[in-house]
Design goal:
Helix content: under 10%
Shape: globular
Order of helices and strands: HEEEEEEHEEEEEEEEEEHH
CATH architecture of the largest domain: Roll
Number of helices: 4
Structural class: mainly beta
InterPro entries: Phage_phiJL001_Gp84 (IPR011928), Phage_phiJL001_Gp84_C (IPR018964)
Number of domains: 2
Oligomer: single chain
Organism: Wenxinia saemankumensis
CATH class of the largest domain: Mainly Beta
Domain Bacteriophage phiJL001 Gp84 C-terminal: 188-271
Protein name: Bacteriophage phiJL001 Gp84 C-terminal domain-containing protein
Mean pLDDT: 86
Pfam family, one: Phage_phiJL001_Gp84_N
Distance between the termini: 89 Å
């Protein structure tokens, strides 16, 4: 008997199961059944860890729209992990399952987690369907600046050659950090780069560097655009990678990577319309 045959009997033993896969690879399974289930290499735990409203789906390219609801629980979804952003962009799959025979199931939804809001000890997560990436503009733009991201497949710079792992000397506020005796690199070298936390509660979290200043005593002050949501303290280890301002000169002089430059540095700017040209000057 197939799953559709089981549904056609009118006397069913079905439940819903959800699997959340975070970007760091951690998987969590949840079900609204009163007992645990296992299939597809995942254990689905009962309880109030996660539930979902009715799924709205269309036949066109509109984004599937639904919402997941849950209760913050140390055995399910932890409050601190939501605060740290570890569930941002996580993959979500939802099945209708015959709990008497989990091999009989139907995938009802696949997508990612969007915006998450908290309400006391509960949370609500927007679910975005697989058509969501189709709303993102694709293709190249004709502009002087490079369109690649430093270190990606188009840029091809090996960032491991430039990465620096250091212990934080002191913390000022929530986004400013001092690193002692760190003058091997020029002023502003790490601006637009990434700071990745290597240990402590925030291990694996990253932040974008807003400013990087080399101080007279050889120490270095870095400021992030936004705080690391797990918080950082002196002595924690972080890895810093440089940023790029997308200019041809930076690509050539700092990374020796002109062959992979993805901009059009010689394209005329808007001011060329106001340039009278050599004939008018004559």
């Amino acid at each position: 008997m197939t799953f559709l045959d089981h549904l056609a009997t009118g006397s069913t033993t079905v439940c819903r199961c959800w699997r959340v896969t975070r970007r760091d690879g951690l998987r969590r399974g949840f079900t609204d059944h009163d007992g645990p289930l296992s299939f597809d290499g995942t254990d689905f735990a009962p309880g109030s860890g996660l539930a979902a409203r009715a799924i709205q789906q269309g036949t066109g390219l509109a984004v599937d729209n639904t919402e997941a609801l849950g209760v913050l629980d140390s055995d399910g979804i932890e409050a601190e992990h939501i605060e740290q952003g570890r569930y941002d962009g996580a993959g979500v799959e939802a099945w209708l399952v015959n709990w008497a025979d989990p091999s009989q199931r139907m995938l009802r939804f696949a997508g990612t987690i969007g915006q998450i809001t908290r309400h006391g000890d509960a949370f609500a997560a927007e679910l975005r369907g697989l058509a969501e990436p189709l709303n993102v503009a694709h293709g190249r733009a004709y502009q002087p600046q490079c369109q690649a991201v430093l270190g990606d497949g188009a840029c091809r710079v090996d960032l491991t050659e430039y990465a620096e792992t250091r212990a934080i000397g002191s913390v000022e506020g929530s986004v400013d950090f001092i690193f002692p005796i760190f003058d091997e690199y020029s002023d502003r070298w790490f601006e637009r780069g990434l700071l990745r936390v290597e240990d402590g509660p925030g291990a694996g979290l990253t932040g974008v560097v807003r400013t990087d200043r080399l101080l007279p005593d050889g120490s270095r002050r870095l400021a992030l655009w936004a705080p690391i949501r797990a918080g950082l303290v002196p002595g924690q280890t972080v890895t810093l990678t440089p940023g790029c301002d997308k200019r041809l000169a930076t690509c050539r002089d700092s990374f020796d990577n002109v062959v992979n430059f993805r901009g059009f540095p010689h394209i005329p700017g808007e001011d060329w319309l106001l340039n009278p040209g050599p004939e008018a000057e004559a």
